[in-house]
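Request:
You are asked to prepare a plain-text protein record giving the amino acid sequence and the backbone structure tokens, at your earliest convenience.
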Amino acid sequence: MADVVCFGAHPDDVEIGMGATVAGMVRRGLEVVVCDLTDGEPTPAGDPETRAQEARAAADALGVGDRRALPLKNRELVDDASSRRSVAEVIREYRPGLVFCPYPMDAHPDHIACAVIVEAARFWAKFTKTEMSGEPHYAARLYRYFALHLRINPDPAFVVDTTDDMPPKLAALACYESQFIANPANSGVLDRVELAARYWGGLIGVRYGEPFSAAEQVGVATVEELV
């Protein structure tokens, strides 16, 4: 059982898009699971073993105890029945109330595929007459984080104040040495992530923020709780 499951196409996607939000949820006592659909390899300076070690270290930095990796294939991620089943079984196993996935518009085909797979799997997970493992479950809410390769300024449904939780996010990203240190092409990623967090935070009057898109309308219990 878990309160939240965050899905990413590759290790580091969740950290880039919503690492501070994850750290904040863990800090507040929620049970958070991160599930990578692929191992993210090959990359110019990485390998499967190194990437798995980095992903575990990053999860530790965020306080996440349970991190899963599905055996789907990097660069060839597609929305098919097998992929939907794999993700739906994760949802049925953990039975979260909250599911997160990437924003469904991006330059990276794997990010698009991950979003489509997860949204379909959210529905598949409630099937009753099926050979899938686990009991039927429908996650009440699904939100999308932004870990984009497109240079766009998305219009989020809401922005989370992550001021108190940026240090663990940056520490988690720093664990991916093969991606952001050993590969010169990505040497500016951490600075850009921090700058983006300042931008989104500034829009809601705080130091740092992370934006999210919503598949459905977002409701609030009380107006005065809004930042």
